[in-house]
Amino acid sequence: MRSLDLDAVRAFVLVADLGSFTRAADTVGATQSGISLRLKRLEDRLGARLFERTPRLVRLTVEGEAFLPRARGLLAAQDDAIAAVSARPRRLVLGISDHVAGPELPGLLARVAGQGPGLALEVRLGLSHELLDEFDGGSLDAVIVRRDTGRRDGEVLFRDDFGWYAATGWHHRPGDPLPLVTQAARCGMRAIALRVLDTAGIACAEAFIGGGSAAVAAATMAGLGVSPLARRTAPPGTVDVGPRLGLPVLAASDVMLHSRLSDARLSGALRGLAAAFRLPVAA
Predict the structure, then answer these.
(1) pLDDT at residue 88 tops 70
(2) Whole-number Å distance between alpha carbons of 52 and 68
């Protein structure tokens, strides 16, 4: 009997995890047609159809559901075998903007950690401009940050829309300055929010200044005021009150990937994380 093509098996797992042939192709640096061909050969080899495909949906068949845990086992066994004789452990030092990370970060990082044994992952959260400085200085292998208007390098991962978020049931007393919940003065989003409110002639007062996105999320959920947040990272229990209060529209922001990796395995792990970031956040 012929053995299974492990590249095709890996492509199958990627499509199953990402729900998209296109995203799977982006992850491994292949074309969509190349991924489709690998899957067709795997299906022919197994004698079973693994996916149901429509223009809007990619879904595992019953046979695909049964094969998925076994496919993961095959790939894990291969990774174990490679790690057993690998002379050099691999380390990926990654910076992620605190504003970009959001509540989905644990699941996103699991995709990198799932690349197999022998991969050490170090993640630093911080403000975008500070992480870019560390990247330029050589202390970070890659960063996922908001676009710096002065730079032309990097790869666009996705575009974030912003709104003015407050706790459900929070109300602004007419005539009072708008209470703002923001990060520290170095935060670019804080500067943008203050600028657009000033341009619109809306008086505001800083009600809370946090040292990170977790503190800002907690203060917003506690009803301390309004925070300019990306829709994808807005904490549960908050709503966009911008339209109701007549607040100015906040411009969308590109999230960028900057990388200097040359190691194929580390690059593959990073591509997997980038592809996961492109997935829509579950409602």
Answers:
(1) no
(2) 14
Is the confidence at residue 102, as pLDDT, over 60? yes
**282: confidence class by pLDDT, cuts 50, 70, 90:** very low
Matching fold, domains 90-159+254-278 and 162-250: yes
State residue 75's pLDDT score: 84
The CATH homologous superfamily of the domain defined by 162-250:
Periplasmic binding protein-like II (3.40.190.10)
Structural domain boundaries of the chain? 6-85, 90-159+254-278, 162-250
Residues 240 and 231: their CA atoms lie apart, in Å, by: 8
Which residue type occupies 156?
Answer: V
Alpha helices by DSSP H, the chain: 6-18, 21-28, 32-46, 62-85, 98-101, 105-113, 128-136, 188-199, 213-221, 242-245, 264-278
**Which residues, listed in sequence order, are joined to residue 158 by a DSSP beta bridge?**
255
Name the CATH architecture for the domain at 6-85. Answer: Orthogonal Bundle (1.10)
Query: Within a 10 A sphere around the Cβ of 59, how many other Cβ atoms?
Result: 12
The 10s digit of each residue's pLDDT in 44-69 is 999 999 999 877 788 899 999 999 99
Tens digits of per-residue pLDDT, 115-153? 555 677 788 888 888 899 999 988 999 999 988 767 788
What's the start-to-end Cα distance of the chain, in Å? 45
CATH topology of domain 90-159+254-278: D-Maltodextrin-Binding Protein; domain 2 (3.40.190)
| 101 closest CA partner among 159, 144, 68 | 144
Q: Residue 129 in 3-state DSSP?
A: helix
